[in-house]
Every structure is written in C-alpha cells, then in structure tokens.
C-alpha cells in the first residue's frame, strides 16, 4: 500500500493538536491573547485557565491498534511514566518528516536502527532483520503511535509493528 502526502499531513495535524495541549499547560496565569499563524483563530487564555482536558484512561497493557487504511497493527506495551508532550510530538514530527522524504519510493528501511530525539525524549525504531519495514509502513505506524498519544497518554512505552501476523519492526519512546 502506498502512503500519500495527504496521509502524512493528517498525522502531522494530529501531532500539532497534541502540542497544543502542552501550550495551555505552560501559559501564564494572567489573561493574554495567543496569536496563531496562518489566520488561525486567536485564543484568549482568560477562558482557558484550567488544565487541558484530561485524556481517557489507559487501554489494556498490551493494546493492539489496527491503523485505518493499512495492513499495519501497532502493538503497545510496557507503559511507563508520562513524558513531555511537546518533546514526544517533535520526535514523531521528525520521524514523519523522514518518512515523507522516502514515501514515494516505498523502499525497505533496511535493518539500520533509527533514533529521533527532542529534549529528554527519544523515539527509537528497530526494523526487523527481514527488511520488510518500508517507509510507507513506518509512516502508518507513526499514525498509530499518534493515535495512541492523542487518545490516551503521552508516556514511555514500547511497541511492535505488525503487518498481518509478521513482526516487521519494534521501538520505544523513552525519556
């Protein structure tokens, strides 16, 4: 399955939404206006003085997420402590940016280990030795990871990437 740039833009949009949760947590207590680029609506912090909306309770550990419109399932497990959402989002943005560079080719990622870092957070990816993990499949997995952190919690975790019943990669988010 080929992944389009529109698909990646959807993932990036979800990541930016995650970053916005962090913005409200660090805003000053006095009322100010936050100006957003590209004609986005301005936000008045006076009406947003509370903490960001709480995320839902964690899913079972382990938890499998079938990424829509793909053959990829991300198997999450080994949940740990919470991590800074902005750092995790930046790691996922780096990974998505790299994937979009190669997305049209949809070639194997090989067996090289990949690391994306921001602040104290590291996203590690370990393709399987079978070389079945392609950039398009990694992009789908990024979408699955983004779903998890936007739906549940931004935390330390480990994951496997499955295509059908075959493990094609593994990884972790640490900090």
Q: Tell me the overall shape.
A: globular
Instruction: Provide the structure class.
Output: alpha+beta
Strand order within the widest beta sheet = 3-4-7-8-6-5
Main sheet attributes: strand count, strand direction, barrel closure: 6 strands, antiparallel
* Average of per-residue pLDDT values: 77
Instruction: Estimate what percentage of residues fall within beta strands.
Output: 15-25%
Radius of gyration, taken over Cα atoms and rounded to an integer in Å: 17 Å
Contiguous helical run count: 3
Low-confidence stretches: 1-5, 18-54
Distance between the termini: 33 Å
Helix content, binned percent: 25-40%
State the total count of DSSP E strands: 8
Order of helices and strands: HEEEEHEEHEE
Summarize the structure.
The protein is of the alpha+beta class and 175 residues long.
Q: What does it look like?
A:
- There is one protein chain.
- The protein is α+β, with helices and mostly antiparallel strands and 175 residues long.
- It is 33% helix and 24% strand.
- The protein has three helices and eight strands; from the N terminus they run H-E-E-E-E-H-E-E-H-E-E.
- It has helices at residues 5-26, 85-102, 135-151; strands spanning 33-34, 43-44, 63-66, 72-77, 114-118, 121-127, 157-163, 166-174.
- The chain has a six-stranded antiparallel β-sheet.
- Helix 2 (85-102) packs antiparallel against helix 3 (135-151).
- The protein is globular, with a radius of gyration of 17 Å.
């Amino acid at each position: 399955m080929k992944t389009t740039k529109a698909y990646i833009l959807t993932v990036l949009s979800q990541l930016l939404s995650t970053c916005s949760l962090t913005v409200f947590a660090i805003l000053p207590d006095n009322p100010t206006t936050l100006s957003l680029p590209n004609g986005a609506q301005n936000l008045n912090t006076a009406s947003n003085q509370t903490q960001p909306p709480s995320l839902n309770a964690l899913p079972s550990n382990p938890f499998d997420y079938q990424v829509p419109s793909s053959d990829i399932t991300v198997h999450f497990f080994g949940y740990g402590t919470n991590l800074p959402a902005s750092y995790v989002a930046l790691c996922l943005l780096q990974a998505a940016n790299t994937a979009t560079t190669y997305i049209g080719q949809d070639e194997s990622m090989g067996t090289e280990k990949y690391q994306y870092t921001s602040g104290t957070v590291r996203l590690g990816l370990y393709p399987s030795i079978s070389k079945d993990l392609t950039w398009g499949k990694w992009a789908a997995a990024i979408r699955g990871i983004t779903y998890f952190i936007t739906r549940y919690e931004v935390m330390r975790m480990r994951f496997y990437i499955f295509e059908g019943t075959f493990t094609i990669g593994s990884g972790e988010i640490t900090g």
